[in-house]
Design a protein that fits this description.
CATH architecture of the largest domain: Alpha-Beta Complex
Distance between the termini: 33 Å
Shape: globular
Mean pLDDT: 96
Structural class: alpha+beta
CATH topology of the largest domain: Phosphoribosyl-aminoimidazole Synthetase, Chain A, domain 2
Helix content: 25-40%
Bound molecules: cobalt (II) ion
Low-confidence stretches: none
CATH superfamily of the largest domain: PurM-like C-terminal domain
């Protein structure tokens, strides 16, 4: 869709829209670059405060995925003319609480009337121009580390169908509420080469973008991948979000999956995530250091020379 747009020619644009990166990056000075991103969506949980907080964690994530530090944000709101104002206030409070936790100041925002509620933020952060973590940059020999468990889309679908256990829903919400800040700090303690956050296109959709931008193949060991409790069972029972099938249609031609990988595991590799984890490509020693510093992080594979497919799963 973006292909017909005029190319931006400005030496200060360090990351533009051409590489499907998490955020745009614009150099202000040799020491400082702006990181800018925007994300908003319709309610994904019943509780309005929780929805606001998840929307904030999700919007902030794209700044962390560039190795940046969020500074300011603007809220974006669509709300029905006759919508419940208490719910609206709770959404704004939930978002504000998460922004405070991230040390990111809300400067203002904009709202429109719409039958379907939507909420999110535009977030601005900073990063050193030499330490921008784009999709391109993964190197052969790197380890791949991931920082959250997969399955928020499947669990949301199971919830809508009335088959999700309460403790599984709470674990999914807890994961979506977790800021990627600590994961980002652990990643920045060493020398990371590339990073993206895993969101709407699923683990393989975002991994594909990293592999393509870096011109390498990612080898994913699915036995190391971690899933939210309940996610594999619900996938087996057919609680498959529409977005999962779209992701599979779009990405599977770039992916080789060994026949030993279970069908429900393969499905979850395409599950659209809300406020998902960081996928990081970094040298082996830095992977050890990152995991020691952020124990929720774990290895999921390695980077190998570009083969016939962008991703191999076994
Ligand atoms: Co992203
Ligand atoms: Co993004």
């Amino acid at each position: 869709m973006l292909a017909g747009l005029p190319r931006v020619i400005d030496a200060n644009v360090l990351v533009g829209f051409e590489t499907s990166d998490d955020a745009g990056v614009y150099k202000l000075s040799p020491e400082c670059a702006l990181v800018q991103t925007v994300d908003f969506f319709t309610p994904i949980v019943d509780d309005p405060f929780t929805f606001g907080a998840i929307a904030a964690a999700n919007a902030l994530s794209d700044v962390y995925a560039m190795g940046g530090k969020p500074l300011t944000s603007l809220s974006i709101l669509a709300w029905p003319a006759k919508g419940d104002l208490d719910d609206l206030q709770q959404i704004l409070r939930g978002g504000a609480a998460k922004m405070i936790e991230a040390g990111c100041v809300i400067l203002g925002g904009h709202s429109v009337t719409d039958d379907e509620p939507k909420f999110g933020y535009a977030v601005t952060g900073i990063v050193h121009p030499d330490r921008v973590l784009a999709n391109a940059g993964a190197r052969v020999g790197d380890a791949l580390v991931f920082t959250k468990r997969l399955g928020t889309g499947v669990i949301s679908t199971a919830l809508k169908r009335g088959i999700a256990a309460e403790e599984h829903v709470s674990a999914s919400i807890e994961s979506m509420l977790t800021l990627n800040r600590a994961a980002c700090e652990a990643m920045l303690a060493g020398v990371a080469h590339a990073c993206t956050d895993v969101t709407g296109f699923g683990f393989l959709g975002h991994a594909r973008e990293m592999a393509a931008a870096s011109d390498v193949t990612l080898r994913i060991d699915t036995s190391q991948l971690q899933f939210l409790p309940g996610a594999l069972e619900y996938a087996k029972q057919g609680a498959i979000p529409g977005g999962l099938n779209n992701n599979r249609d779009f990405v599977s031609c770039h992916v080789g999956v060994h026949e030993s990988v279970a069908k429900e595991v393969e499905s979850l590799l395409y599950d659209p995530q809300t406020s998902g984890g960081l996928l990081v490509s970094l040298p082996e020693a830095d992977a050890d250091a990152m995991i020691a510093c952020y124990p929720l992080a774990y290895r999921v594979g390695i980077v190998v020379p570009r083969g016939p497919r962008l991703i191999d799963c076994y």
